[in-house]
Amino acid sequence: MKTTAWGLPMSTWVAAQRCPSALMVISRSGQSALAAELLLAASATVDATDRHGNTALFDAVFDYRGDPATLRMLLAAGADPEQANAKGVSPRGLADRIGNYDAALHVPGAGGHT
Predict the structure, then answer these.
(1) pLDDT tens figures, 27-73
(2) Which of 77, 76, 72, 50 is nearest to 60 (CA)?
(3) For residues 114 and 107, is the Cβ–Cβ distance under 8 A?
């Protein structure tokens, strides 16, 4: 795995360049829910958006790989599953649109779940 001079995985560094907040970097790079929880405890804005209107929850749904901890933590912190991005797609809608049924199980209302 390629890393930066600071030891960060290159994918995390690239994600950081596109994100307005550290919370979004964590959500995009598949880092631990604990890191996201610490950022929220330090007053990170849960529904901050990038230039496309995507939130940390949107990114967590998009990059979901089987561990629901980050999704659950963002939702518990008040992330809005209905907040649409610039294209009109919400995290809830994304879970259905991309057919990520595992992620949809954890986002209220997605895939017909509550």
Answers:
(1) 766 556 777 777 777 777 889 898 899 998 998 898 888 888 888 88
(2) 72
(3) no
Which structure tokens are listed for 96? Answer: 């259905």
Separation of alpha carbons 6 and 19, rounded Å? 18
Residue in the structure block whose two tokens are 């895939």: 111
Measure the CA–CA gap between 114 and 112, rounded to whole angstroms: 7
Kindly list the structural domains of the chain, giving each domain's residue range(s) and its CATH number in brackets, ordered by start.
Answer: 10-112 (1.25.40.20)
How far is it, in rounded angstroms, from Cα 105 to Cα 53? 23
User: Which pTM does this prediction carry?
Assistant: 0.72
Q: Which of 10-19, 61-70, 101-110 has the highest mean pLDDT?
A: 61-70
